[in-house]
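Q: Hi! First time doing this. I have a protein sequence and I read that you can turn it into a structure. Is that right? Here it is:
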Amino acid sequence: MSKFKVTGKKRLSGKLAISGNKNEALPLIAAALLTKKKTVLTNVPAIGDVEGMCAIATHLGALIETKDHTVTIHSDHIRTATLPLELSQKIRGSILFASTLLVRTGEAIIPQPGGDRIGRRRIDTHFLVFEKLGARISSQRKMTESGDECFTYILTAPQGLIGTDIYLDEASVTATENALIAASGAQGTTTITNAACEPHVQGLCRFLQKCGVKIEGIGSNILKIHGTESYDSVQHRLGCDYIEAGSFISLAACTNSDITLTNVDLSVMGLILYQFRRLGITVSTDCENGMIHIPDNQDMRIKNDLGGAIPRIADSPWPGFPADLTSIMLITATQAAGTCLIHEKMFESRLFFTDSLISMGAQIILCDPHRAVIVGPAKLSGASISSPDIRAGMALLIAALSAEGDSVIHNIEQIHRGYEDIDLRLNALGADIQR
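A: Yes, that's right. Below is the predicted 3D structure, encoded as structure tokens:
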């Protein structure tokens, strides 16, 4: 495995262009297999998860060309309904092919999806969707060569999917996306209630509309999808990755750097910027040109709530604060004067990476798997650490860039899954990151 050697306390300066939304790219690649006509996706980030989804699509029979952040997909023929085990276990988005395969072939054989190790990530809601649409589900349990237990799920709908009313038992983003794709190819009309409505879910809706699917309620938690058997050729540009934008705001503030972010959709940044302001970080924005400027010499002081109460930063479904930024806010809080509580409500293992930050000198009390109290500012020192997931990996990189001395970050493949050429992009601004 590759690793980064990072020399900290380097002040960065310059511009960073924000990539296309990783979490929009993955369902679009799966949904592109609905149509036998050409699909062109632009502003696609060149990251590990996108590479993984393209590799799975190729295994299923699609022809894919990638060049200059453009992915062209031809899926005239689906040659198998079985997802490849090794590829699927590396990326949670692999489960999105289940809906496409059910529409195209009437069956889907999928192993337990992989992805970040941030705690249990239930897939029950996906199967609720498929059963409501008329699919039958069975499972097999096997042991892999490494001795791990692996479940394989067999989904069949030989007569096709039938539109219906679906109430999701949780507002799961990926389950909503699977429901949207499956309903697009189902007979009749499907209504999804308690749907997730994140910007990348809206992006998938707009993509499916371009394909010829009629969708009502985009941006709300009630979606009505009118299925079709005919799909058009589509060209679609991905929206900006607001998680990457938030990550770079933290990076600039923690390293006392002057950085301008470009290609930003300010319409999806409102609550993110508000939470950074609670940590004392101010930015200037240019909505017309899609830019955010983070000046150096920030007065990072945590702002108490009314009455002097310790503030709490918590994640919640859109339009709330995104869970993928809780790790980033945690490292940011270590460099701000004061005390705050980070409350990550979704995954019981996401905050376990705080052990690495504590080893670097951060003052953190992990109250339970979901809550951490941070007291700052902390003087961080270089250490040997490992990236457990995409967002924790980025948080550890920010910590290493903020620390005195050298750090070594192992398992950087996790960071590459969500951040394109992060070492090259930051080195161009003055960082010292050796791969």
